TrEMBL record:
The gene is ZADH2. InterPro entries: ADH-like_C (IPR013149), ADH-like_N (IPR013154), ER (IPR020843), GroES-like_sf (IPR011032), NAD(P)-bd_dom_sf (IPR036291), Quin_OxRdtase/zeta-crystal_CS (IPR002364), Zn-ADH-like_protein (IPR051397). It comes from Nothobranchius furzeri. The keyword Transferase does not apply. This is 15-oxoprostaglandin 13-reductase. Belongs to the zinc-containing alcohol dehydrogenase family. Quinone oxidoreductase subfamily. Its EC number is 1.3.1.48. Pfam families: ADH_N, ADH_zinc_N.
């Protein structure tokens, strides 16, 4: 996935420098007393590594795509590699939590960047603490800072990330992870493509999932009547709790029939993530001047083509007859909106106005998703439709980190 420029702290702290290096102790001396030397050299980053306090090991585990396949288990292997060293503008982050995305299997199938050949790193997003950094990165961060990021290679115990692609967060909470991709997608897609007006009806499919939960809440905040599809009564209960007016459990109710009976004028805005027959029924239930936003088509991702079958021959007729539209949305195309979206969602969360539901697989027979290897179970869990909220894996449990920070 293309990387996003994330929020960076303005005028933040600098890291403490090793004695005799860098800025410390140079201020009072007249210029030219010391022999000239290059300020940035490759050895520098090592001086910013917090070896003493955080006990960075020499090797770590990471998940690597070794074979292109939409089956995550087939495509991905666990590798033991040296812990990487950050370059000048980079951070070494000890990942505490990483987020699972439906597209992790599109990525492992090579669908994002066909030029990318295995082996390559997996995982899109993480939150953790800075345990090492390069010189110029130290103008914004220091060891011990909590950061979140959206970038490649998150499925690892440690990840090196360019500082400009990270966002400072108040603490290492998994809730912040829910906003980077899932929250931002809902926020920006509805704002830029939804044209929501108070009193309109909004249908969200896969509504109890990572991004769906946010689409429901943002539509509700806009004063819309919200409808959400999901696959269990437990999920329907969760949807009620976040303000969804009409949860529809598609395993117990015929979604099309329910929509026709209860919303005979059709649906004004549809946030559609499932594709295939769900997309078909969504198109058929659009209102006059309705807007359908294509967010994804998860029902096809596990297949060889990645695309679910869709009977679209009559689509132009249906759209014309209703003056309706179908709009595609892909987060990396909306980078200009990203900063505002993230800071607005962080504020809502801080004020208790936004539920960021995290699902670490607590009810799973094998236990919570703890440790890097549980990424495999977590991907299966999402594709079994079990998750309520954003699927998150705790890579390094709090007690395992030696950091005193
Ligand atoms: N366009 C973008 O920039 C962008 C960004 C982020 C995400 N997305 C898309 O948003 C969608 C949701 O992604 P997410 O990461 O937030 O996942 P998620 O909603 O947390 O989890 C996926 C949910 O989809 C449903 N599902 C799972 N497998 C399915 C299948 N085979 N057929 C039909 N439904 C299935 C399940 O919900 P139920 O069992 O309750 O139906 C499951 O809980 C995906 O289509 C993803 O590609 C797009």
């Amino acid at each position: 996935m293309p990387s996003l420029p994330l929020l960076v702290r303005q005028g933040g702290r600098a890291a403490a420098l090793a004695p005799g290096r860098g800025r410390s102790g140079t201020g009072a001396r007249p210029a030219g007393v010391y022999p000239t030397r290059s300020i940035i050299d490759t050895s520098y980053s090592a001086h910013f590594m917090d070896f003493k306090r955080s006990s960075i090991p020499s090797s770590m585990q990471k998940l690597v795509v070794t074979k292109l396949s939409p089956s995550f288990r087939e495509a991905v292997s666990v590798r033991t590699v040296p812990v990487p060293t950050p370059g000048d503008a980079e951070l070494l982050i000890r990942n505490r939590f990483v987020g699972i995305n439906a597209s992790d299997i599109n990525y492992s199938a090579g669908r994002y960047d066909p030029s990318l050949k295995p082996p390559f790193d997996a995982g899109f997003e993480g939150v953790g603490e800075v345990v090492g950094l390069g010189l110029s990165a130290s103008s914004r961060y220091t060891v011990g800072d909590s950061v979140a990021y959206f970038g490649s290679g998150a499925f690892a115990e440690y990840t090196v990330v360019p500082a400009k692609e990270t966002v400072p967060v108040p603490s290492v909470k998994p809730e912040f992870l829910t906003l980077l991709v899932s929250g931002a997608t809902a926020y920006i897609a509805l704002k830029r493509l939804g044209d929501l007006t108070k009193g309109e009806t909004v249908l969200v499919t896969a509504a109890a999932g990572g991004t769906g939960q946010f689409a429901v809440q943002f539509a509700k905040r806009a004063g819309c009547h919200t409808i959400g599809t999901c696959s269990s009564n437990e999920k329907a209960g969760f949807l009620k709790s976040i303000g969804c007016d009409r949860p529809i459990n598609h395993t117990a109710e015929d979604v099309s029939k329910t929509l026709r009976n209860e919303f005979p004028q059709g649906i004004d805005v549809i946030y559609e993530s499932v594709g295939g027959s769900t997309l078909e029924l969504a198109v058929n239930n659009l209102a006059n001047k309705g807007r359908l936003i294509v967010i994804g088509f998860i029902s096809g991702y596990q297949s060889a083509s990645g695309i679910p079958p869709f009977r679209g021959a009559t689509l132009p007729v249906k759209l014309l007859q209703k003056s309706a539209s179908v709009r595609g949305f892909f987060l990396p195309h909306f980078l200009g909106d990203y900063r505002e979206a993230l800071s607005s969602m962080m504020q809502m969360f801080a004020k208790g106005e936004l539920v960021c539901k995290v699902d670490c697989g607590e009810t799973e027979p094998e236990g919570r998703f703890v440790g890097l290897e549980s990424v495999f179970r977590a991907v299966d869990y999402m594709y079994a439709g079990k998750n309520v909220g954003k699927v998150v894996v705790e890579v390094t449990p709090a007690g395992v980190s030696n950091s005193k920070l």
